[in-house]
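go over this chain:
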Amino acid sequence: MAINRRQFLRRGTLAVAGVGLSAERLVHTTAVTILKAPAKKVLILGAGMAGLAAGYELSKLGHDVTILEARARPGGRVLTLREPFDDGLYAEAGAARVRDNHNLTLKYIKTFDLPLEPFYPSNLKAVRFDQGDRREVPIEGYTDAMTQNYGGELGEGPQIWRKIKGGMDLLPKAFAAQLGDKIHYGAAVVRIEQDAKQATVKFLQGGTKHALAADVVLCTIPFSVLRRLELPALSSRRKDLIKRTHYDNVSRVYLQTKERFWEKHGLNGFAFTAGAIEIWHPTWSQSGPRGILMSYARPTEADRIASMKEGKRIEETLRQLDNVFVGLRSNFERGVSKCWSEDEWSRAAWGFVGVFEILKASAPEGRIYFAGEHLSPFFSWIQGALASSMTAVKQIDETAQVEIALK
C-alpha cells in the first residue's frame, strides 16, 4: 500500500528524536570501562544543514573535522535572498518555516540565541482562489487551504509556524562561525574512494585537483548531485539507490514593489491560487514602505516556470499576481527568480529515498557514512537534515568507541 509523507510522520514508524551526545562518553566492556575514544579524522562533504550540524557536534566530541563545500557560502538549500532588493529587504529562497514540533531546529536556534517571530501575519485578510471563486479570508482560511491541498503537515493553523527574524540563513551562518576554517569553500567533490585503511576524496578547488584522506567520510551531498560523481567506494546497490531516488523541484518568483499597496485594501499579501500556488508577503514584518510579493510553485508548475527565461518568469508572475492584488503592475520595481532544478549543487528542492529504503540508505558503507534531509521522514525540512545528521554523528562516534574497546 502506498504511504505519503504525512501518513508516515503520523504513524511515527521512523520518527527521529534528538540524539543525546556527550563529550564524556563511556564504553563498557567485560574487563574495563574506557573514557573518550581517540579522535577520528572525519571528512564531511557538504556544508548544508546536515554537514554543519554534524561538523559542530563531532568537533565538540573531539574529532578532527574538515568540511568540503562546493559553494562559496554555508547553508545549502537554506538561502536568504538579500539582492537585488532595496532597503534591507529579504526573502527566503529555500527553507522558510519552522514548525513547533521541529525540536532539533528549535534547539539550535536557541543554542545560537537567534530570535524567532511568527511566519504568518495575524491581521488583515488573505485571498483564496482554490474553491472556484475569489474569497478574502482570515489567515486561518489560508492555512485551511494548505491543509486541504497538501495535508495537515502544512496546515493546522498559522500559530504553529515561525521563522528566524533577520533571515533563515542566520542559522547556517551561526554554525559556520563556530566551525571557522574547518570549512573549505569552493571545493567541489568529484570522486570518493576507500580501502581497508582510509577513505579518500578528490575535489576541485581553484581549478586544481586535490585529495584528502580521512578515517571516515560523512557524505551529505544530495543524491541528485551525488549521482554525477565518481563513486568507486560504493556498491552497485548503493549507486542504484542514489540514481533512482526521486527529487522534486520548487520555483519561486519575487516581485519588489515601491509600496505595500495591498495593505490599504485590507489584504496581508498572502494568497492561495486555483493552481495550488502559494503567494507570500515575506516582508510583512520588515520595516519600510517597500514590499516583496513572491510565488511558491511546486511540481509540476515549478518545472513549467523553470523552462522559461528569467524575464518571462517575472512577467508572467507579475500578470498573475496583478489579478490577485490589483495595482501591482504600477507599483512593481524589480523581480528575480529561484528555480532549484537550475542550482548546480542541489539540482532539486528536496528528495526522499522512500519508506522502505530509509534504514538501508542511512547505514554506512565501509568508511562512508550518509546524512541529509533525503534520509529522514522529515524530508524537505531543516529538521530532517538535522535529525539525519545526529544519527550519523552517533554512528561515527560509537564506531570510534567500539574500535578502541576491541584493541
Observations:
- The CA atoms of residues 227 and 243 lie 6 Å apart.
- Confidence is low (pLDDT under 50) at residues 1-20, 22-34.
- The first strand starts at residue 26 and ends at 28.
- The chain has two domains: 5-76+174-246+352-406, 82-168+250-342.
